[in-house]
Amino acid sequence: MSEYQAVKGTRDIFPEEVAQWRYVEEIVHTLSTLCGFSEIRTPVFEYTELFQRGIGPTTDIVGKEMFSFLPDPKGRSVTLRPEMTAGVMRAALQKKLFSLAPLHKLYYIGELFRKERPQAGRQRQFSQFGAELLGVSSPAAVAEVITLMMQVFESLGLTGLKLRINTLGDTEDRLRYREALQLYFSPFQEILDDASKERLEKNPLRILDSKNPAVQELVAGAPRLYDYLKASSLQDFEKVLFYLAEREIAYVIDHRLVRGLDYYSHTAFEVSSAELGAQDAIGGGGRYDGLARELGSSADVPASGFAVGMERLLITMEKQGLFAALHPHGPHVYVVVQQQELADHALQITWQLRKAGIKSEMDLAGRSMKAQMRDANRIRASYVLFVGTMEYSTGLYSLKNLATSRQTTLSLEALLQFLQEVAVKEQPAL
Ligand code: HAM
User: Sheet holding 68-69: strands in order across?
Assistant: First the structure.
């Protein structure tokens, strides 16, 4: 073992797991494209103020979880992105996308960084896939992003996920509610912890998110935002629920759901998985009509979106046994050399197979036939192709199917054709 270990809160993803990631990513690309979203890739770091303004100065992310640094002594502070939404909106505004068309549908898969205490399902470097629908403010738009997220879950075969949904109203609704919360919590100074007292001043909605059991007890009796919504906000929410019901997407209304980022207005949602333990949120999102203005836009850019944690998604899939059916692309041929003097000839055949698009492998260390067979089984090859003096002189090669132990002898040309046909049949259906 080397004296170096991966940094706390980060992890390596080895080839077997990469296959699982690529399988999920493929489905994300296919379904996002199907629903009219195009992929965007933004930088891994941004100016720190983007997140301070975008996510909100009183949130945990901005308050204590950002990896910020000075790129040079006189430079402006930059931060490794803790989420994607602010960067995507920044990119769209910078590129003046809204002068070209009013509506933009973007999706992404990328790495994020948060200085959280690492535990199962919580890392300091993690990945999300997500989508942002920019430029329109409507229940149909919110329903569209929720539907895409749920469709990805469904296509992956996930079951037992719980979608919780709430409305946070508009700025006016929240101002009235904020006052009601301050009135309600103020007499309980002795029960409130320091963080909650600070929140009471700056952002009382955050108290609803407190993990402190004593504060949670108070929260149970607190006024509900729902009772402070104006009629148009209520109608907006009901329309979102109507679309979900129409698409047979099951949800639970949760009046206490506030989410950890400040940019939301109206609908907010979160999906949890019973398979995950303490960190059970697999994804979340909502509408964020005020973010563009917060980032300095002179025009309103209403928007909505979601993000799903890839690691938590993969843990849930593993626990539900959803990777069992994953099989490698095409037949995997291991070329076994019977006499070492034919190794160069075997190499040539291996390259011919690869040129024909057939995944193939051979031993490069001059090992015994027995060792080569062991290797073929270890890498779970589908076929073994034998190269010996007989094959060399006749031009007829024996191909053994390792699963059935059946063996056939074919000319090289027939062999290539046969393996190409098998490869086509074995492409996993997405
Ligand atoms: P978020 O709820 O902060 O939302 O993160 C979304 C998902 O990322 C979480 O549900 C979780 O699965 C995963 N996640 C978050 N932190 C960690 C971590 N430390 N380790 C592993 N997984 C984690 C957002 O980021 C918003 N930008 C979502 C959004 C998009 N809202 C509108 N558009």
Answer: 45-47, 78-80, 68-69
3-state secondary structure of 166: strand
- Average pLDDT in the chain: 93
Homologous superfamily of 15-170+230-319: Bira Bifunctional Protein; Domain 2 (3.30.930.10)
Every domain of the chain and the residues it spans: 15-170+230-319, 333-425
Question: How many whole angstroms separate alpha carbon 19 and alpha carbon 27?
Answer: 13
**Would you tell me how many other CB atoms lie within 10 Å of the CB of residue 315?**
19
pLDDT in tens, 185-196: 999 999 999 989
DSSP assignment of 6-27, as one string?
PPTT-----HHHHHHHHHHHHH
* Helices 412-426 and 343-355: angle between axes, nearest 10 degrees: 50
pTM of the model: 0.89
Q: What is the CA radius of gyration of the chain?
A: 28
Burial of 235 (0-12, 13-18, 19+ CB in 10 A): exposed
Residue 426 pLDDT class (50, 70, 90 cuts) = low
The residue to which tokens 């399902």 are assigned? 121
For residue 269, the CA-to-ligand 1 centroid distance in Å is 12
pLDDT tier at 134 (50, 70, 90 boundaries)?
A: very high
Out of 2.30.30.230, 3.40.50.300, 3.40.50.800, 1.25.40.10, which CATH number does the structure's domain 333-425 have? 3.40.50.800
pLDDT at 429: 43
Nearest alpha carbon, ligand 1 atom 17: 122
Ligand 1 pocket residues where CB is under 6 Å: 83-85, 114, 116, 122-123, 126, 128, 130, 132, 260-261, 281-286, 288, 305-307, 309, 311-312
The atom number, within ligand 1, closest to the CA of 123 reads: 20
pLDDT value of position 210: 86
Q: What is the pLDDT of residues 303-356, one digit of tens each?
A: 999 999 999 999 999 999 998 767 666 678 999 999 999 999 999 999 999 999
Distance CA 44, CA 296 (A): 21
